[in-house]
Each structure stands twice: as C-alpha cells, then as structure tokens.
Batch of 3 targets.
Target 1
Amino acid sequence: MPHAMTRNPRTLRRLGTVLVVLLLNAACSTEAEDLDRASLEAEVLAWRETRLASLMSPTGFLNLAGLFWLESETATFGSSPDNDLVFPGSADARIGRFRVTADGVVMEPGEGTVAGVDHHQARWALRCAPARL
C-alpha cells in the first residue's frame, strides 16, 4: 500500500519546494563567496589596468586620428584640401594613399613622407587585412 504523502500532489510539491530551498542554501556558502569575490575583484582590476594601457598605447584606440570611410579603390590622404581624405592641419600635406585590394587595405607612403610607428619609418607599403572571425 502506497504511503499517504505520495497520494497528495500538494504535499509532494511542498516537499519538492523544501528540498530545492535546502539544496540552494547549501550551495550558497558565504565563506567560499568571500574568497571568490576577492579573487574576482583582483582579476577585474588587473584587466582594467591592462585594457587602459592598451587603449593609451601609441597604437591604441585613444590615439585614433579619425574615422574615414574608403569609398573608392584608391584614396589620397593628408592635410591638403585636394586629398580624398583631409587630415588635420598639423599633418603633412600629402601623406600617401590607401588602396583597397581583395586582401585588405594597403597604405602607401608618398614621396619623401616619413610614415611609421614610434618614429620607425615604413620602407614599404603597409597592408591591413580584414579581421577573420
């Protein structure tokens, strides 16, 4: 003969609810939570420092000079108003040109233009390939 508790669905639901609450309570230990919280905070702070350093580096996003869309296969750039992409007045009049190719964008410095990173001159065209996802 089955036990009386198994016949009453309401009693079974109550018993199930109590069991779930007890399991959740056992899983939520404050001692372990304090340890995890401290390590998480340290990890987040370290990530923030690394991210800020990356953003502020010479090639970081915060040093971005501008956002220019390349609407044709070739675009000249510099501070001269007759360039396709006009840079701020502090830039050279004719820095070079961008070429859009099937492999990405190629930046070609103009004659006598010093282009590079950290005062290291580029001696050839620089190619920026599209990101691969």
Target 2
Amino acid sequence: MNSFYTKEELNKLGLKSYGQNVKISRKASIYIPENISVGNNVQIDDFCMLIGGEKGIFIGNNVHIAFACLILGTAGVVFEDFSSLSSRSAIYSATDDYSGRVLINPTIPMEYKNIIKGRVIVGKHAVIGTNCTVLPDVKIGTGCAIGANSLIIKDLEDWGIYVGSPVKKIKNRKRDLIELEKRYTEKYNYGKKSRRGGCKNYIPIICPSFVWKVAS
C-alpha cells in the first residue's frame, strides 16, 4: 500500500477537475480544492500544501510537485505541462508588504495591511530546484532550469539555466527533451479528458492565453 489517494478518495477531495493517473499523497494538505485543477499524470508528494485561493491553481499534464512544497493560489498559479517543483520549494502568488509602511501577518485586519499579488506561471518543461522561493507576479519561461536555494522575483527568459538569490542566468539549457516529448506523447496517446466536468474544465497543453481566460 502507498500513501496516494485512491480514485474513490480523489472524487471526495472536491477538486475542480482532475485527469487520469493522478497521484496525490494522503499526507498532502489541500485547501479550497474547488479552485484547483489537475491534469493527467500528475504526482503531488507527502507534506505538500496547496491553497486554491481566489484565482486558483492550474496544474497541467506530467507535472511533479515534490515533498514539502507550498503553493499559494491567491492570485493564480499555473504549472504548464512537464514542469516540476522540487522539494521544500514555495510559490507565492500573494505576500505581505514588508516595507514597514503597513502591518503584516494573518492576525491583522486587512485595513492595516497591503497584500502584494500577482499570477505566477511555471512554463512548460521548467524545473525549479530544491528549497527555492518564487514571489508574486512572475513568469518562469519555457524550459527554464533553476538551481537549488534560488529566489525568483522577476520573469525568466525561455530555456535558461538560473541560480542565485535573486537568480541570474548562467547559460542556456539544451532542448533535446523536445524530441523525447514528441515520442512520449505519440506512444502514450497524450491528452485524455479529465474527470469532473469533462473537456470544459480540462487543461490540455496549457498556454498562457488559455490560462488568462480561465483564471481571470
């Protein structure tokens, strides 16, 4: 026996939609599931916390969210197909204002706070290394690779390798995996319908224009 929910248990989670071969750990914490959509061949490991929030979390196909990650969907978080989030990493689409002009933390009424919000998009084939932090209003480009312990505070160009706090590009990433993706999708008949709502709520190969329409 493993720690992943059965199909029957997945139905009871209340997700907006989910696809085939979805593995979500029973030890993960899922809040506001009605604003979370999950594609095909997705794995979410132990001790992750996903908070759907107002705008929601949209997870494409063949996405892995590793051990002990945090995803805050207040302003919307999107994982495009074949993207990955490594262990102990966090994605914030909203955060307190730390400038000192306002009070912070959830014990304070909103009239005394200023919440900074912005949608986060993790591009297709992007991989975020362990113990990274992504702050609001960021697009991580297609094919980006981000090294461990990095801080992402601005948009990243496609197919770059980035490291540091904040991240800096150190070189270009190879694109050989695109051919492997084609072979894989042809072999496994990629792109079946999701459960709960059929094609209407299903996330195919996600592109930013589709996401803006759904999540706005």
Target 3
Amino acid sequence: MRHRLIINIFLALIIFASQVNFSFAQKWKGKKKIKNGVIFMLNTEKGLWRNKKNIKMESVLTIGIEDGDEDYILAKPKSIVSDKNNNIYICDYGDHCVKVYDTNGKFLRRIGNKGEGPMEFIDPKYIAINNQNQLCVLSRRRKMNYFTLEGEFIDSFTSTNDFIYRNFTPVPWNDNILITRELFPYEPMAKENKYTFFELNPKGNIVNRYGALVHAATSNQGDIYMDALITLNNNDKLFLLYQHKYRIDIYDKDIKHKMTITRQFDLFSENQIIDYKGWELFETRTVMMYPLAVLPNNKIIVPILDRGKKYIEKFRKRDPSAKIFYDLYDQEGRFLQSFYWKENWEEIIVYIDMNGFVYTISGPDEIPRVRKYKIFFE
C-alpha cells in the first residue's frame, strides 16, 4: 500500500512537471520551422515575458570632455573594442586616429594620424582586435591597417574589391578577417555576386565567400537586396543582421547557417525599403537595426532606431519623436521584450566587452563622449 502511494505521488509529480513545462512553452506565440537544416524562429509582436521588466544602465565611466586636455577630447567616435587587459580602444573618425584608455579612463596612447602613408588613414570607422592581438583599422578607400596593441605599425592593404566599403565592421576569424558588403538600392552587382560576407587574408585577398544575398523588396526600378552587419560573440557564433528587414542570421564556428530570427513588426515594411527616391530622401517613417550584442547570459540585445514619422535623409532632419529601443531575445531565438531606454535617439549601444559592460556613443547633439555602463534588468 505504501509503495502504491509513493508511485502515485511520483506519477502526479511527473504530470505536474509536464504541465508546467507545457504552459511555459505556450507563452511563446511564435513559430519554429526547420528548412534544409536551418532553424527559423518566427516571432510575433508580443514577447515571451509576461511581467515586463525594466532595463537599467548604471554608468561606471565616461570618456570625452568639451575643453581641456586634447587627449580626452573626442571628435567623432565611431566604434569601440577592448583588449584582455580591459584597455579601451576608441576609433575617432573625426580625429583620424584610435585613442587608447585604461579601464579607469586614463589616456594611454594615440594610434595613427591623418594621411595616406604607413601608420596613416582617412576617416577610420571600424576597428577590431584579431587572434594575433593585432589592432585592425578599417578606413576610407577600403584601406586596412594592422598595428600591435602598443601602437607599432605592422602592415596595411587597400582592397581592390569595390564591394568592400568602410561602413562595415571587420570581424577577426582565425588568421583572417570577415567583412560584409554594402549594397545601394538596385545595385547591379548584387545579382552578379550573390554573397553577403567574405573572408580576407592579411593582404586583402578573398579566400572564401559566404551567405546568399537576402532579397528585401521589389520596386518599379527592380529588385532590392539587403546588406548586412556582422557581429562575433565569445562562443564563436556569427550574427548577420539585416538593417531594414528585421532578420538575424546565425552561423556556427564552421560558418554554417544554423538559425534565422525574424519578428513581426509593422514598421519594417517593403514601402520603407523602396522609398529611397534616389537614396537621397526618406520621407516615410524609417526604422533600422544597429549591430546587435550578446550579453554574458547569452541573451541577444538588438538596438533599433525609429527615426520618427518624417525623417529627411538628404538634409539630416530628424523628427522630435525619434527614439531608440532595444529588443531582447533568449539564446533559442525567442523574443522576450522591447525596452525603451531614452525618449530620443541620443545614445546607442555599440559594444559589449568580455566582462559584460556596455559601451555607448553619445548622439549628434551632445558633446562627443563614450560611456561605459553596467546593464541589468529588474
């Protein structure tokens, strides 16, 4: 009798646990599909978290002043990386150099100067640290410079490939780098060279091509293919993010396409992609995704800029209703929640270091600054 009671209790616990897991799974309203070995996570507008949480950003460091010591004045910071010693490297597009600070914000050195010779570059925009602990600086005219982390010049190359543009982040990969291409609307090259990202050796030669181009829209002028932004996390996962389409492709360490994440979002439409008007004007409501970041708990955070109901690209006129928000996903690709951090488009997350600290760059109407935050949810 006693054994039968124990068995009944055990069975009841199993049934209860299965019901709890089932009810948890039912919270997610999206769809999961598998096609050719790739998992497609099709998310709805509603997130998995029923009880909404708030995003908290606790400031721990600010770099950038208006007047005073030139070493601490930033002209136009564009990208950030950190090394194993937690030193901070800021790519200053406006000052044509990389400025290095220690973990407490003390200036250490300046790397590079304006020019076209060795150790020089014009309009540097993106930086990375490769597996050989070399600083890679991608600048105008498709030029890549390599330095030691102490600032000693190693080598440089200028790519002859027209599709390699200065707007896209180089990602270290083994002894080489990965880089995406920029596509202007209706670019004929899109049909001729149907790849999204490329592996370049230290001399700038293409050694591999990856990822099929993603068709975004069809207009009276022709087909539009989307360019992508690329991010690498500490688990050697590659994330390709298509700015105007709301699509994230995830590749494993062997560069095999494993997952695609999408989300139903009315603002991301074909109309806002098509309405380029010679890629000089956006007169419809325009939204775009910025490079995502992976938090220490493997959650994926995606910055999204809503430029407001009327943003005119040609004259860089912004709408007062413009704002930045962040979409959060779990590692399985399920949408959790959107977070509004500020009511306008001032700061945006551009980097998360190996310790989980978040770095932002100030907006166009502020004194140029880089801020370091501790991020948590409550």
